[in-house]
Design a protein that fits this description.
Shape: globular
Helix content: 25-40%
Bound molecules: S-adenosylmethionine, iron/sulfur cluster
Number of helices: 8
Largest sheet: 12 strands, mixed
Length: 317
């Protein structure tokens, strides 16, 4: 379906849980989230109904996210059923990777085609710091499991944080030489409750290129990242710039939260509930959400924070 700005909305990001087995400092508070009642969250049936409604409006691509989607008990079933909905051409998943050693093969068999794995640093102590206690070894085991399972594409996501991982740009980029993966650097977005970082932590992704003078531009592939490649690398470098050069004019996505709210814009306050609705009602609500997509998310700087009203783990990124 085409939105009022002429953008063709073909991509739905579904957060299946707000909960997580990590506590990344840019994403969620140290004490986690106030667990919502079970009956406030979408059931698997409602979730699949939402996918059917979305597919009837021209959504072809799904991304399953969270919180951490792999801690959801029925994650394999959700992926299998979502991938089987007529019209859905591609199911992708974003994960911190910790549970991929157990789940990579079942997810691949369930029809997940692509995996995005979050990896901000290659230093075990820094990994434990930024995730508030996570194990880098476990995340790297997850990456290996994803490589072994044979997904169509694996992308690594690093949130670029001044004073934390900007000194590791060459090492992270080097992963595209060692493995058939893309390495994407994402500007840190100032979310609702992002108290851990001062203004100096918010770097533009142009810093990445300053440290990779040998990187050559590649043709864009329709996604939001600007693409480059190191000579001889198997994968590409992607730069994602929601602050320094927003891509709202090309936005083709809608978001659905685990508690059943459609968000027309990641950084906007508007939410439309689909909890408890029939297929027909959900379809109407989706149309309403697409019609109310704003032209852009408004200025986003360390002092002009996101208007999302939620932390990232409650939206899905
Ligand atoms: N738990 C999964 C993971 O970490 O990949 C999926 C959910 S997480 C919210 C999705 C993505 O959002 C991750 O790549 C994470 O790095 C990114 N993210 C979270 N908070 C962010 C922020 N403030 N700015 C930029 N990216 C952020
Ligand atoms: Fe969890 Fe992902 Fe947020 Fe980290 S970025 S706290 S892994 S949801």
């Amino acid at each position: 379906m085409i939105d009022p700005m002429g953008r063709n909305i073909t991509y739905l990001r579904i957060s299946v849980t707000e909960l997580c087995n990590l506590r990344c400092r840019y994403c969620m508070p140290a004490d986690g989230v106030c667990k919502k009642r079970h009956d406030q969250m979408l059931t698997e049936e409602e979730l699949i109904r939402a996918v059917e409604a979305a597919a009837s409006l021209g959504i072809t691509k799904l991304r399953i996210t969270g919180g951490e989607p792999l801690i959801k008990k029925n994650i394999v079933s959700i992926c299998r059923r979502a991938a089987a909905v007529p019209g859905i051409g591609e199911v992708c998943l974003t994960t911190n990777g910790l549970l991929l050693p157990e789940l990579a093969v079942p997810l691949r068999e369930a029809g997940v085609r692509r995996i995005n794995l979050s990896l901000d640093t290659l230093d075990p102590e820094k990994y434990a710091y930024i995730t508030r206690g996570g194990s880098l070894e476990q995340a790297l085991a997850g990456l290996q499991a994803a490589l072994d399972a044979g997904f169509d594409k694996i992308k690594l996501n690093a949130v670029l944080i001044g004073g934390f991982n900007d000194g590791e740009i060459p090492q992270l980029a080097e992963l595209t030489r060692r493995f058939p993966v893309d390495m994407r650097f994402i500007e840190m977005m100032p979310m609702y409750d992002g108290g851990d970082f001062g203004p100096e932590a918010y770097l533009p992704v142009s810093r990445v290129l300053e440290q990779l003078p040998e990187a050559l531009p590649e043709t864009a592939d329709g996604g939001v990242a600007r693409l480059y490649r190191l000579p001889g690398a198997q994968g590409r470098i992607g730069l994602i710039s929601p602050l320094s050069d927003h891509f709202c004019g090309r936005c083709n996505r809608l978001r659905l939260t685990a508690d059943g709210r459609l968000k027309p814009c990641l950084h906007g306050p508007e939410e439309l509930s689909i909890k408890g609705l029939s297929l027909e009602e959900m379809t109407q609500r989706l149309q309403q959400a697409i019609r109310s997509k704003p032209a852009w998310h408004g200025e986003l700087t360390p002092s002009r924070r996101s208007q999302a009203g939620r932390n990232m783990n409650q939206i899905g990124g």
